[in-house]
Amino acid sequence: MEFFTADYWDLAKLTELVGFVSGLLCVWLAARQNVWTFPLALISAGFYVVVFKDALLFADMGLQVMFAVLNFYGWYLWLYKSGERTERPVTHTLRWQWIVLLVLTPLFTFGLGRYLDLTTPADIPYWDAGTTAVSLGAQWLMSRKKLENWLIWLAVDIVYVPIYLHKELYLTAVLYALFIPLAWIGYRDWKKDLQLHQARPEAG
């Protein structure tokens, strides 16, 4: 098979492969509440900036930059609470956080989609913008260790698979297909942890 030949693995595909491996590991570690998810996520984001630029998925490319920022933010939050080094517990998403997501996600989708449609050669600008908006929301909730981030990831990962197949990013499509069961496992395990510790929703 061509996939297993040396000629198949050019620089672009090797870049996607590194992003694939580091991305898969970072989600697996996130499901296990392991703080090492964050440095691996930074590696994956760096490589996927290049992958998505080449695929003309400009919103996804920018998303990786935002992921890097949110991963530094989440890395700190997971290790520190109220300025003291302590493990942050899993909590439910608060009402105000849902309102922020429900208001900003469609606005961001329309605004970015319109911009990409008018100024770039992107062929699916609104799909690119929409999945980016939802992913940013999910990452924000994950950074704050909110249980429901996994349900949002599960939904958007299902949408990502056909998008990446359309863009012929087959390895990335496989990655996001693997993210779907990992998101469910993450939700199940975080929910058990929340129930075990009888955590209460936080004001943050």
UniProtKB/TrEMBL annotation:
The chain crosses the membrane at residues 12-30, 36-52, 57-76, 96-116, 147-163, 169-187. The keyword tRNA processing does not apply. It is found in: Cell membrane. It comes from the Bacteria. It is a multi-pass membrane protein. GO terms for molecular function: nicotinamide riboside transmembrane transporter activity. Coiled coil: none annotated. Keywords: Cell membrane, Membrane, Transmembrane, Transmembrane helix, Transport. Required for nicotinamide riboside transport across the inner membrane. Belongs to the nicotinamide ribonucleoside (NR) uptake permease (TC 4.B.1) family. This is Nicotinamide riboside transporter PnuC. It comes from Nibribacter ruber.
